[in-house]
Amino acid sequence: MKKSIALLQPPEVIFRSNWTDRYETKVARWLIPWDGEEAVDIGFIGVPLSKTSISVSGASLLPNSVRELFKAVTTYNVDADVDLQELLARDMGDIQMHVTDLAQCHRNIEQGLTNVYQVLPNLFPVIVGGDHSITYPSVKAFKKRFAGKVGIVQFDSHMDVRNLDDGGPSNGTPIRSLIEAGTVEGNRIAQIGIHSFANSKPYREYAVAKGITQFTARQVAREGIDGILSQAMAVAGTETDAIYVTVDMDVLDQAYAPGVPAMVPAGMTSWQLFDGLFELGKNPKVMGMDVVCVDPVRDQRQATSRMTLYAILTFLAGYMKRP
Ligand SMILES: [Mn+2]
Fold first, then answer.
1. At residue 162, does pLDDT exceed 70?
2. How far is the CA of 25 from the centre of ligand 1 (A)?
3. Is residue 124 included in any domain, yes or no?
4. What was the pLDDT predicted at 1?
5. Which of 4, 89, 125, 143 could make a disulfide contact with 42, Cβ separation 3.0–4.6 Å?
6. Banded pLDDT at 16 (limits 50, 70, 90)
7. DSSP 225-263
8. Domain-located, residue 238
9. Ligand 1 centroid to 36 CA: how many Å?
């Protein structure tokens, strides 16, 4: 029987490819809209909210920008020799937003995702923002699924622990909000790619005081991603029931991610991010992910939207290697 999910709208755009090569497997022919009946393994869920961004951001356009690229990319990962077509992945559509009431938008995200998880209890959510403010309501909904503790692995140039008195909840506050709401303990949060001149000392002190484990972009450059990622998974996976991965695309160097509002020089490389996400994909404790903070309006040739899609697909290639 066809189900409808409250607060979830069908995908706004569907890009088809009229020409096909019979041997080529495009994402557009695999990641198709949910028919309301299938028991989905992987659900692509758009969360088009960026009025909550501190700097000007058109990140609400990211879900559609990524959808547009479904026809440009295949499902085959040559390094892992896996074809994602073996996963039942569907485009679930977008969480419904209120035009002016931003607190209502956050309530819709928490409730809409909760509704999705109730209808499809085995679905792995791939949530595409939007700005980073969406991670607070998303993790609240995520935690309700597990009746236990949640850890977080975050890729970000920024700590996202700004105070809430000077405005918020915004894309600068989701981690602080999660800690102060008691949703996630600081000592179960690992942040990778934290950058100089993109944060301030009082927030570093806050993060340290709350027990957050931070790895800077420089540490990743000097030590490599593999060991750091193992440590991050231990932080988020010890004495927890599930890990949530959140990827702020501004963790990447500005050369690789020209479409993020808060770009940084000497950020992480594409391979450092992809190798990290592949490993996280392999970890059975990772039960959900989001990708945020890409503004397609300021992007160049959809380079950063394409990076976002590759990040998701690389994670899923790791996911296929789960035992
Ligand atoms: Mn962020």
1. yes
2. 33
3. yes
4. 64
5. 89
6. confident
7. HHHHHHHHHHHHHTT-SEEEEEEEGGGBBTTT-TT-TT-
8. yes
9. 32
- Find all residues with CB under 8 Å of 172, minimum gap 6, and list them: 54, 132, 158, 160, 162
For residue 312, being part of any structural domain is answered with yes
User: If we measure between CA atoms, which residue out of 133, 278, 275, 276 comes closest to residue 191?
Assistant: 276
Residue 225 lies in a domain: yes
Instruction: Identify the CATH number of the domain in which residue 225 sits.
Output: 3.40.800.10
Residues β-bridged to residue 214 = 191
**What is the distance in A from the centroid of ligand 1 to the CA of 160?**
6
Span 182-192, pLDDT tens digits: 999 999 999 99
Lowest mean pLDDT among 59-68, 163-172, 199-208, 252-261: 163-172
What is the tally of structural domains in the chain? 1
Dihedral in degrees, nearest 10, Cα atoms 41, 311, 273, 94 = -80
Domain range for residue 280? Answer: 26-319
**Terminus-to-terminus CA distance in the chain, angstroms?**
32
83-127 pLDDT, tens digit each = 999 999 999 999 999 999 999 999 999 999 999 999 999 999 999
Q: What distance in angstroms lies between residue 31's CA and the mean position of ligand 1's atoms?
A: 27
Angle between helices 303-319 and 270-282 (to 10 degrees): 30
Distance of CA 196 from the midpoint of ligand 1 (Å): 14
pLDDT, position 99: 96
**Cα of 67 from ligand 1 centre, angstroms:** 22
Distance, in Å, from the CA atom of 294 to the CA atom of 279, rounded to the nearest integer, reads 23
